Amino acid sequence: MAHSDPRHGKVTYRWCDHCNTLLLGQKCSICSSPGREFSVSRPGDFRPALTGSADQLRRLVEKHFRCGERLNGVAIFLNKVAGEDRVDEVIVQGRTIAVLRFDVQRQELLLDLKEDGALLLFKHAKKGIVKLKPLRGHLQGKNLAGDQVLEANGEFSAGDPLIALTGNLVCAASARVPSSQLRTAEKAVHIAGAANAEGAWEAGKSEARAFVEANVEHLKVIESKGVSDIKSFVSQQKLPVTLSFSGGKDSLACYGLAKKAVKDLTLIFVNTGLEFPETIRYVHQFALAHGDKLLEANAGSIFWEQVKAFGPPAKDFRWCCKVCKLAPLTDIIERTYAEGTITIEGNRALESFARSGMEFVERNPFVPNQVVLNPIRGWIAADVWAYIWWKGLEYNPLYEQDFERIGCYLCPSCLASEWRTTKDIHPDLHRQWTEHLRTWAKESGGSDDFVRYGFWRWKVLPAKMRLLAENIKLQVPKQRADRLKLTMVKGISPCITGGYSIEGVIAVPRRRPFLRVVEVLKTVGKTKCSEEYEIALTKGNEATIKAFGGGQVVATGATPEKAANAFEAGVKAFLRAELCTMCGICVKNCKRRAITLKDGPLVDEELCSQCGKCTEACVVAHYYDKLVT
Q: Is-contact 455 465, C-beta < 8 A?
């Protein structure tokens, strides 16, 4: 059982030295030992290293120290921490031996050795060993000159990890220069940390079976709570129960709970049109093998139809999720479960900051007739894997390929290291998206490097990416150039007739006739228009909007706030009309059934109450601040 130390940003877990495995509960289920405490960096959502990940680590140890075999048969856990891209602490026997880090600039996975890693490897390493003159004092963080080096074993490059030996100390170090320049460099070796050689240790063998058996009691407890929570809620409802089955590990763990909690369960798989082929096969084969009913909501080619209008999705602009996932999900639930459904989902609090405050029961704001249950919200990734192995549930084979998460193959939130893996296993999919990005970048005034280094993944670049741009001497804007331009003609100012006014022009591509803008304005207030002159007048609550076919919007209001809100509503009307994806979420969210779709939204003014629910549900309106600059 983990506990946090807020003073040091660490999370404490326990390791059973007798059974040589991680403990997730209060004691070992095999030997009853309470285990030895060890700490990892927050958030502590660590996971067992499966085949691909473990092989990556062994290859790096072999490359730098020629002793990768020391990790054969060893239980390895990875703890994901914050960083530029992939950054994983490597845990062996409750010790952090290294950090695996994907360097975006070099486009490769690197190994940063820690003191415990140096103590594990130094007796077996056949290269990467540097012997130093006897040194005194505090060494951590120091850069040593080449004249301090007595002997260097093997060739290495600048930045490579080293093991430095001096007196009775073993140091985790790195090369500041290539081995050919070592003796003459002013800064030759960087010392990351030092430990007494008497602390040398050996990594014992351990199997996944031991990890499961040592945590059986803990697994029984978390399963019992999950099943009980589901049963308790479902028993008070009369709605059918479904499981969101994405093909990932978390939904698979929820499957184990759900099958114990309810008798009649239907799996829902949203095929976004961007799924890995392995995921589609896995989901269908799993449902068939277990005799479960499977509903597939298929987005078809909608992503490729909309990407030209919206541009590539980004970490801060995930329009694709609403268009490719929520829209088909909303449609299939409304068609199949008109009265609604209770859907069990594998959402976990540690997956992201946005999910950290989730409750067990939540309402999906975009799917009005769906109640969501989150039974594993408090689990860590190690809980999930231990439970899957305990239950003998077959999992998506992509996890063995060094994927931490399984989703759409071109998702902007996937790691650059995973995108490299996609290139290895599906070069055709990788090539298709890369070529699209290069064409888009060229049209937007960007370069191939803008794509190569992943700058397209953000609408507004974070500090770490701006720093990377400086390091590689690449000129990039702080925000992507594919935003729609909103030109302010006049800011908020007093109006001679009373109240306040604001005026601007939105440069939105003309995909539909102006009458579709008029239809959307009906959701704001009573609207009149001149089709010939393309002018619309909308009167709402203490505010008026004038919209013109050229994109001009003039808004007046009783207060500056009302004028500003009316102006934004007018601009959003242009965006919603011209960029409408026909996803239908607005239709499903309108309780009065005032909206229909026919090459864009049509609004029955007699039924519409201007409640704003359709605007809240619209992907275009939701990302207003990312679409417009």
A: yes
pLDDT tens across 295-323, in order? 999 999 999 999 988 999 999 899 999 89
How many angstroms from the chain centroid is the CA of residue 327?
Answer: 20
Phi-psi region of 92 (alpha: psi -120 to 50; beta: other; left: phi over 0): beta
Q: What CATH number does residue 61 fall under?
A: 3.10.400.20
Entry pTM? 0.91
Distance CA(413)–CA(203), nearest Å, equals 35
Helix (H) or strand (E) holding 309, with range, is helix 302-310
Structure tokens at 424: 């290895």
CA distances from 468 to 158, 333, 458 (A): 19, 44, 14
Domain count of the fold of the chain: 4
Q: SS3 for 311?
A: coil
Q: Identify whether residues 510 and 538 lie together within a single domain.
A: yes
> Do 81 and 178 sit in the same domain of this protein?
yes
Domain span at residue 58 reads: 41-199
Residue 367 belongs to some domain of the structure: yes
Integer Cα distance of 122 and 184 in angstroms: 25
State whether 345 and 377 are in the same domain. Answer: yes
- Asked if residue 210 is part of any domain, the answer here is no
Please report the pLDDT score of residue 7 as a whole number.
43
Statement to judge: residues 582 and 450 lie in one domain: no
Mean pLDDT of the chain: 93
Residues 6+ apart with CB under 8 A from 228: none
Q: How far is CA 527 from CA 245, 420, 521, 588, 596, in A?
A: 44, 52, 7, 23, 18
Residues 490 and 467 in one domain: no
